[in-house]
Design goal:
single chain, Rossmann fold, GMP Synthetase, Chain A, domain 3, 5-stranded parallel beta sheet, 18 strands, about 35% helix, globular
Length: about 525
């Protein structure tokens, strides 16, 4: 992105929602960029942001090791919005007082505007509305020249402003979908307060990615780990535009894939993307390496290690390939965050945390900073067929992280059939595109059942369906009971050794979309 582009700078203090703030701002048509709290004055001047947002995070201003913000950020004389920890940090810096709340707030709350503010400008933002909180500290005394502009059930100071310094603070998270009018609040900050123009578009992003790939790769060959899903398909289309015939795609059948996945991928990718495709069957290798492993993180690491070693071996047959490309997207990254980002690790992803420290490729991840819906928009812009773009996400480690406990051939076979029935039924009912992600999980427990007048003691499986726009938060999909009954009946009748089906009704948060 050119340095002349008007942008909003986001300072990351370790919030799981930091990239979500960036995404929301991009949705407004404004370019956003994320940097750590130790950003230098030189870099700040190079970026020339029109405004700054301080993210939330797991820190407390009372800790001696707290993450602070550089003074030159405040001296730069541009609007600043602090969210959650960012708000507390601003209050602490300017002489306010923060204390640990007697009642922690993690979830929905009610917010009330107590004063008109540029941040809440617009008739469509009512006096009271629902917000999403995630904090244990709160501001109890304002700094000089600051004023309260909003309160919540648990805090008299849930939003403040200092018009003289053009500084604003919000205790709640406007970036999550659970907060009403959050988009309008961010729009007010970026467009009205920071005077940014709406110049960030999908076409601009495509141009930037392609130029970046050309700059990194030049005329060399690229090997892409192709899964047949949305992300890797979009990456294939982008890299092909950048390097043409120098793109080679490799599909590895890990034995942890959905039913008929190898056959379907080979047919659809060759037809729609017209790329060089190599198919490798490595089922036995993966299953052997996973034998006896029950820890989900260990499974991811093993799958990542096995993946890369196979790529190294098979790529030698292609000759002169130095670059490995992957379809890693941001939710993969943020949920396996490193200590560099200061956020808590939720899980590693084989595309991110599962890779070995040393391997013989330069890694390129063109869509690493994008969310799923942004990737889909790019895919549509690149004319990738809808049947590829609209596919539900499938985890890189495959069914291994949908089998709780040790992975065996028996469990894979059972879960593969359960998944096939589940997905087919929601497709047949015209419900597939109303769901963001549907999945089945093999549970390490058995339950009594009666089939054909005989007592059976067989496995339990769970099915799950969620709807979301960003995969950072998600609500359960309300599948009609009649459809659930049909799905359950088919699974129990058609899949040997399954005695019971349960439906997971946990939102994210507190749960994650995948079980492991």
């Amino acid at each position: 992105m050119s340095q002349s582009t008007e942008s909003i700078l986001i300072i990351d203090f370790g919030s799981q929602y930091t990239q979500l703030i960036a995404r929301r701002i991009r949705e407004l048509g404004v370019y956003s960029i994320i940097k750590t709290n130790n950003i230098s004055l030189k870099e700040l001047k190079q970026l020339k942001p029109k405004g700054v947002i301080l993210s939330g995070g797991p820190e407390s201003v009372h800790k001696s090791t707290k993450l602070s913000m550089p003074k030159h950020l405040l001296d730069y004389n541009i609007p600043i919005l602090g969210i959650c920890y960012g708000m507390q940090l601003l209050a602490d810096y300017f002489g306010g007082k923060i204390s640990q709340s007697s009642k922690k707030e993690f979830g929905p709350s009610s917010f009330t505007k107590v004063k008109n503010s540029k941040l809440f400008r617009g008739k469509d933002i009512p006096k009271e509305f629902n917000v999403w909180m995630s904090h244990s500290d709160k501001v109890i005394k304002l700094p000089r020249n600051f004023e309260v502009i909003g309160s919540s059930v648990n805090s008299n100071i849930s939003a403040f402003s200092c018009d003289k310094l053009n500084i604003f603070g919000l205790q709640f998270h406007p970036e999550v979908t659970h907060t009403d009018h959050g988009r309008k609040i961010l729009d007010n900050f970026c467009i009205k307060i920071c005077s940014c123009r709406k110049s960030w578009t999908t076409k601009n992003k495509i141009q930037e990615i392609i130029l970046d790939i050309k700059d990194k790769v030049g005329n060399e060959r690229v090997l892409l780990a192709l899964s047949g899903g949305v992300d890797s398909s979009v990456v294939a289309a982008l890299i092909k535009r950048a390097v043409g015939k120098n793109l080679y795609c490799m599909f590895i059948n890990t034995g942890l894939l959905r039913k008929n996945e190898e056959r379907d991928v080979e047919a659809t990718i060759k037809k729609s993307l017209k790329v060089n495709l190599v198919v490798i069957n490595a089922e036995k290798k993966f299953l052997k390496n996973l034998k006896g492993i029950t820890d989900p993180e260990a499974k991811r690491k093993i799958i990542g290690e096995t993946f890369i070693r196979i790529f190294e071996k098979e790529s030698k047959k292609l000759k002169k390939i130095n670059f490995l490309a992957q379809g890693t997207i941001y939710p993969d990254v943020i949920e396996s965050s490193s200590t560099k980002s200061k956020s808590d690790v939720i899980k590693s992803h084989h595309n991110v945390g599962g890779l070995p420290k040393k391997f013989n490729f330069y890694l390129i991840e063109p869509i690493r900073k994008l969310f799923k819906d942004e990737v889909r928009k790019i895919g549509k812009e690149l004319s990738i067929p809808d049947y590829l773009i609209d596919r539900h996400p499938f985890p890189g480690p495959g069914l291994a992280v949908r089998i709780i406990g040790e992975v065996t051939q028996e469990k894979i076979s059972i879960l593969r059939e359960v998944d096939h029935i589940f997905i087919n039924e929601i497709k047949n009912a015209g419900f597939y595109n109303k769901i963001s992600q549907a999945l089945a999980v093999f549970l390490p427990i058995k339950s009594v059942g009666v089939m054909g007048d005989q007592r059976k003691y067989n496995y339990v499986v769970a099915i799950r369906a969620v709807k979301t726009s960003d995969f950072m938060t998600a609500n359960i999909s309300e599948i009609p009971y009649k459809m659930l009954n049909m799905i359950s009946t088919r699974i129990v009748n058609e899949v040997p050794k399954v005695a019971r089906v349960v439906y997971d009704i946990t939102n994210k948060p507190p749960g994650t979309i995948e079980w492991e």
